[in-house]
Specification:
Elements lengths: L1 H19 L6 H94 L23 H13 L3 H14 L6 H14 L3 H14 L4 H16 L3 H14 L4 H12 L3
Helix pairs in contact: 1-2, 2-3, 3-4, 4-5, 5-6, 6-7, 7-8, 8-9
Length: about 270
């Protein structure tokens, strides 16, 4: 640009002379003017070419940056998709483990029920001797495994009220049975199945209070957190999920609670 200004200053007097009195300009002046004009055009062309090269370089840099950003976005999207897929896979595996565990527990319960039924069979009754006022032996009632299985079958068929009565009978007759925590928990499940979420949550809370060391306690506490979450009681829900993680860190529910906290669903 400095070169162009210099040339412009040089032919300015000549141009002025031509404009004010062409008769006084010589051929030499005209030739100088033509040379200077050509020089200006050449300098302008070079400047335009340099600017065009700079613009092309900037455009190329922008394309590279844009491609890099697009590539990074694609990698982030793939990572997120893979992470979500892994999470779904983990959750599915947890459900499968829970199903297998439930099947094993059901088989053990069936075995216990069969043993109870065999033990409950009435022995052969010997007619009492004349004058003997001893009462004949009475057949024992159903054991906890039998009551549990009968109630569970009713729940599986959708007879929630009948199932709830059966689970309650188990708790009344055998309050210290190792099946008592499950019976208490399934009372909550029957209430929830009937749409009575508030009563179900009260029962789940009772499971945590009465049987804090039972495997069902983690599930009941996690469901209590979900109840609070649906009620928009976010702070209490987060506390419930954190308690699941702290008290039952190796449970399946702890993994689900961590995901709830990460997702900010509470």
């Amino acid at each position: 640009m400095t070169r162009i200004r210099s040339i412009t200053h040089r032919f300015a007097p000549v141009a002025l002379a031509l404009a004010t009195g062409a008769c006084f300009a010589t051929r030499s002046d005209v030739r100088i003017l033509q040379q200077d004009v050509a020089a200006v055009r050449a300098a302008t062309a070079r400047a335009d070419s340099a600017r065009a090269a700079q613009i092309a370089e900037v455009a190329s840099t922008l394309r590279v940056v844009t491609d890099s950003v697009r590539s990074a976005n694609e990698r982030v999207a793939r990572f997120q998709a893979n992470a979500q897929g892994d999470l779904r896979s983990i959750q599915e595996q947890l459900l499968q483990i829970q199903e297998l565990t439930g099947q094993s527990a059901a088989k053990l319960t069936d075995l216990r029920r069969e043993m109870e039924e065999r033990n409950a069979q009435a022995p052969a009754v010997v007619p009492p001797a004349p004058g003997d006022t001893t009462r004949p032996p009475q057949a024992a009632g159903p054991g906890p495994a039998t009551l549990y299985r009968l109630a569970f079958d009713q729940m599986s068929r959708g007879s929630h009220s009948t199932a709830r009565t059966g689970f309650q009978d188990l708790l009344t007759q055998y309050p210290n049975s190792d099946l008592a925590p499950d019976a208490q928990y399934y009372i909550g499940e029957t209430l929830q199945a009937e749409g009575n979420s508030t009563a179900a949550d009260s029962v789940f809370s009772l499971v945590v209070q009465k049987y804090p060391s039972a495997p069902r306690a983690a599930t009941a506490l996690y469901k209590h957190g979900l109840f609070l979450q649906r009620a928009k009681r976010d702070r209490e829900a987060r506390q419930a999920f954190q308690t699941v993680i702290d008290k039952y860190p190796r449970s399946d529910e702890a993994a689900l609670a961590r995901e709830q906290l990460r997702a900010g669903g509470a």
